[in-house]
Amino acid sequence: MNIAVIGTGYVGLVSGVCYAELGNHVICVDKEKDKIRVLQEGGIPIYEPGLKQLADHNRELGRLQFTFDTLEAVRQSDVVIIAVGTPPGPRGEADLQYIEAAAREIGDAMNGYKVVVVKSTVPVGTNEKVQQIVRSRTDQVFDIASVPEFLREGSAVRDTLYPDRIVIGAESPQAVELLKQLHQSLTPEIIVTDIRSAEMIKYASNAFLATKISFINEIANICEKVGADVTEVATGMGLDHRIGPHFLQAGIGYGGSCFPKDTKALIQIAGNADYDFKLLKSVVEVNRQQRFGIIDKLIATIGPMQRMEGKKVGVWGLAFKPDTDDVREAPALDIVQTLIEHGAIPKVYDPVAMDNFRSVLDHPSIHWCRSALEAAEEAEAICLLTEWKEFKQTDFKAVEQVMLRPLLIDGRNIFGPQHFKDTQFLYYSVGRPAFG
Ligand code: UGA
């Protein structure tokens, strides 16, 4: 099949590369010329494990191209996938300007039957809007379909090539048939539904996952007060098939470009339909608070924040999760900001997200370190905010030597007490008894 993918962000780029891997001819389009130039020259503008190898392979086979010429890309394609951003507007609602612009260009480029697929996460009813825009600019026959994406940053290639399910929201049998063909080698779990339900499945899935996280984080907070261990509790809960073991990892809350944006958008969508989504509002509020638990633990161990003046605090991990350089809505942003506000000196280190973090939060009191050990030097405490593999392999005997006080506040619960048995470390985590 000939496929055009409009938008080369996470979803567009990974989808484009993976559709090429399935044997299709794919043209990825973006308005940002610099980005396209990087891609044309063999670069990948995002950090995503495995993506470059797959892109190189398909480029060599002539199945993957990049252009900023939307009209040409659409003209050459049977399936046109819209994967542009839907950033949050001032009230949390999804901003649809890029979707609408893409629809206009598709309409102008139509030269025969095509299926226009919306992959971006969009409020219920957006596909119909796209249909109207395209229809207003062409007499050609086309169909519209919603095929939401469920990939995670950091495992995006695997999630796309081995998905749990494919959701196809479409009314036209011809479009359904074409899209089933396109995805049939990926999974037997293909759900065909109406367009509005497909749009809702994406929001409801992300909102539910966010709910699981805020739920376990509140359980963790209670565990701390009553002396229970949330990891034990989550294991015990997760063995119930109705609950499942996933997304019950307590910590400093979710970040990233998806959960924060989509939960707020769904609250807004509900509100527009005159429904007060109370549960989801609480999920968002719990998540906002949860990251400050790290600061509470610093206060509990070092003393009130006014005593933080001039004190060095190591910060291990800035990305919103491991295996990505993405810092959007990362808990580290608020935590480092709070440290700065109280006069502390954050000594930050992340294996890949340093530049991105600096472009969002740069401050003279931040020390940018080249290793986890350097971030620990002369520190009163280390706050671990992202569960990078390299932190799990830390030699704490060496770290202890360079710190002023061997104190680790682990926001991701990556260690057990055994880890510190030969050290002087005082170890705090989330929802578990302190150790040391
Ligand atoms: C999320 C969804 O998992 C994808 O299915 C969806 O396609 C994507 O959003 C999207 O809408 O595009 P992503 O944001 O890449 O993917 O990352 P996740 O792995 O879901 O993690 C999100 C956040 O939740 C991270 O900050 C992570 O640290 C946190 N998390 C996750 C927890 O705190 N606890 C957990 O148990 C799981």
From TrEMBL:
Q: In which pathway does it act?
A: Nucleotide-sugar biosynthesis; UDP-alpha-D-glucuronate biosynthesis; UDP-alpha-D-glucuronate from UDP-alpha-D-glucose: step 1/1
Extract the Pfam families matched here.
Answer: UDPG_MGDP_dh (PF00984), UDPG_MGDP_dh_C (PF03720), UDPG_MGDP_dh_N (PF03721)
Which keywords accompany this UniProt record? NAD, Oxidoreductase
What this protein catalyses is: UDP-alpha-D-glucose + 2 NAD(+) + H2O = UDP-alpha-D-glucuronate + 2 NADH + 3 H(+)
Q: Which InterPro entries match?
A: 6-PGluconate_DH-like_C_sf, NAD(P)-bd_dom_sf, UDP-Glc/GDP-Man, UDP-Glc/GDP-Man_DH_C, UDP-Glc/GDP-Man_DH_C_sf, UDP-Glc/GDP-Man_DH_dimer, UDP-Glc/GDP-Man_DH_N, UDPglc_DH_bac
EC number, as in UniProt: 1.1.1.22
Record carries keyword Amino-acid biosynthesis: no
**Know the name of this protein?**
UDP-glucose 6-dehydrogenase
Q: Which organism is it from?
A: Marinicrinis lubricantis
Q: What is this organism's lineage? A: Bacteria, Bacillati, Bacillota, Bacilli, Bacillales
